[in-house]
Specification:
Elements lengths: L2 H15 L12 H10 L5 H14 L3 H6 L2 H8 L5 H19 L7 H4 L7 H10 L10 H10 L7 H9 L7 H14 L18 H6 L4
Helix pairs in contact: 1-11, 2-3, 2-8, 5-6, 9-11
């Protein structure tokens, strides 16, 4: 089976499983999604949501983040890990958004990547969820599962993104990545994946190589 066919089947099956998928990070303002995604590096979305519930009330505007006392902001985000670096990023991101973009999130990949602490994964999340543009968010779930399905042999996020852009229809690419996350948590886990009950196993390369032969 060709990669394009596998991709089409994966999109269809995941849509059946998670028809109303949405980002698992909570936010009410566009920049809050980006801030939450920055805090989510090496941290679970569930923990980030607990932290940001208080954080976004304490600092309700970009101006408040930019003016925050760094040591206090560090304490506020400490449960998310790597708190010194993350607090610094939030403060600097807020200031740059105010100084260079009039307090609005940029709408292009190149501009988003100029923001402190923002890489392609977070930039793609913003492009897809905020601006409704085609986006491939190559988090650990996406990399693991698309590798198992046989859509890519790469494990570096940028290379995986490049491979998937050729295979996933742009109009569903953002939702596809959110569905992959849910699927990775529920079924295609890093350890002990539920392969025999997986609705994608009939076209999964990993299943045929590792499970079906047993």
């Amino acid at each position: 089976m060709k990669k394009k066919e596998i991709a089409e089947l994966a999109c269809a099956e995941l849509e059946k499983l998670y028809p109303d998928v949405k980002c698992s990070l909570n936010y009410s303002k566009p920049y809050e999604l980006m801030f939450g995604a920055r805090l989510a590096a090496q941290c679970t979305d569930a923990r980030v949501n607990i932290v940001t519930e208080t954080l976004f009330k304490k600092y309700p505007t970009l101006e408040a983040f930019a003016a925050a006392e760094l040591t206090e902001l560090e304490r506020d985000v400490k449960p998310c890990g790597f708190y010194r670096m993350k607090a610094k990023s939030l403060k600097e991101m807020a200031q740059k958004l105010l100084d260079d973009f009039g307090g609005e999130l940029p709408q292009t990949m190149d501009e988003l990547l100029t923001l402190p602490g923002i890489g392609r994964k977070t930039a793609n999340l913003v492009m897809g969820d905020i601006w409704g543009k085609p986006a491939i968010v190559t988090d650990t779930h996406c990399i693991r599962i698309t590798g198992r399905l046989g859509l890519t042999k790469n494990t570096e996020p940028a290379k995986v993104e490049k491979d998937l852009v050729k295979l996933i229809p742009p109009e569903v690419s953002s939702d596809f990545c959110h569905r992959i996350v849910e699927f990775g948590r529920d079924i295609c886990r890093a350890r002990a994946p539920k392969c025999r009950e997986c609705p994608l196993n009939y076209f999964c390369v990993y299943y045929f190589k590792n499970i079906d032969v047993k």
